[in-house]
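Dear support,

I submitted the protein below through the web form. The confirmation email said the job was done, but the results page showed an empty box. After a refresh the structure appeared. I'm attaching both so you can tell me whether what I see now is the final result or a partial one.
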Amino acid sequence: MAGNSDISGGILAEIKGVVYSTCVSVGVFSFFTNLLILVVPLYMLQIYDRVLSTRSGDTLAAITIIALVMVVIHVSLEYARDRFLAATSLVTDEKLRGRVFDAVGHEYQRTREPQVTRAISDLDQVRQFLTGRALISLVDAPWAIVFVAVLFMLHEALGMFAVGVILLMIGVGLYSEFRTKKAILDEHRESKKASIVIERSIRNFDALISMGIMANFKDIWAKRHAEAISLSQGNLKTHANISLTSHGIRQLAQIMILCIAAYLAITDHISPGMLIAANILFLRAIGPFEGAIGVWQNIVRFRDSFGRLRKVFDRLDSSVGSRDLPAPTGRIRLEDLVVIPPGSKNAVLARVNLSIEAGEVIAVTGPSGAGKSTMLKTIVGAWLPDRGKVRYDGFDINDWDPAKRGLHIGYLPQDVELFDGTVADNIARFQPDAPMEQIIAAATKAGVHDLVLSLPSGYETPLGVYGASLSGGQRQRVGLARALYGEPKIIVLDEPDASLDTSGLLTLKEKLAELKQQSATIILATHNVQLLNIVDRILVVKGGRIERDGDRDSLIKSLTKPVPVRAPNKAAEA
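What the results page shows now:
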């Protein structure tokens, strides 16, 4: 079995490889572009030391033509480098975006934290880094050694001054790291909190607006948004101050290098042409460091984004596999299953053992909070157990590739959500080129075919975000059709009667009876007596454990017996 630890390591190695190969490629470009940067100072040197002294027009024409050709080559190489970086970033995004999406899904499955979606923006940050000036500044920085070496060749004082300014620039960069690292992380955290408040407010808009809660959520959002803005402004102010400091250092240093070079020229230690060359070489030597300070926040964001991606991939569960296993027959076994919700210390399911034969129809009942929904989510692989195993036909369900496993599972969650697309798209689980006859067959089994035909565009009716154009009962039926699409062998329904009227409930009962005849394994959480009457077996869950497990006839009477009515207390009435 190929563990996801190997997969995650491969993805990380691929990201590192892309960054490394990009740096190498940019380094090759930089080798030539930085050599060609010497064209201008050499041209100036030749003008001052050869052309002006000899007054030779031929010499001027020759060196000018050579300089122009070199400049054109320089510009062409920089253009090619920028195009290469843009293409590399697009290829990188194309290679990794699907894997990052999978990693986000797995991380949310483990933590249930909406912040895990930040990995998508982290990938964007890595992509932007590959196309931005930050990478170029970092790759160009080692070339400062070449320019400083040339300055030393002109005169030792010029080289020593350049080294001192570079060290000062590095000190400013380290100070920037110290001052902004935590602030940037705090800004991202608060901004994400504000975004989550907005997202949840919109998703629960009806309840919030009808009960007057929206104003309270607005205050919560405004507080978090203001905190994020405050941190952002603080970061911008710090970054602006540091950029101004580096800019001021560069200007003062430029004056000083000209002063030193002029003094050396008037004392005949260097020629006048070397004075101009020294100024240009000095600016090129400190340029990458000043540029790195200017884009330091981008460098920090890239580093932090890469670190978070590393953590997301490192936390991938090594038990998730991709074996090509046969379709399950519907036989399910739970072995010492323990499920503890993220952020909690208490188990919702505690050492649950259960064996279900293929073709059995089982009802799971019990009080609210007993663990019924958690059990169903774990059976279909939506939740990961903290301990124990869920097995289909003896295989750990994580041995299957999740996409292939899902083809054999039909799941109707307690809160049905449909997605932005047509009715057909939602029923077909957004599979491309899904056969229309299978979509209609699933809708017919769910008893929703006539309803769909009554919609304005039938199966091509767009549902909008969250399926808002349908009522709760209609969403329930379309969700059931989605669960039945493709004739899955394992059908898990969580409170399938929750939003149905009497007619819908009778239809559901009839369709479940038909599915029972087709030997599908059906597990449903319900308290409805009409649905309990068609099952083979009933599980009573209480406190995260299976309290009772027996055939329908032996348990249904005790579960549905009327509560005795106490006779009125006549003494109390008197």
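Response: this is the final, complete result; the empty box was a page-load delay. The radius of gyration is 35 Å.
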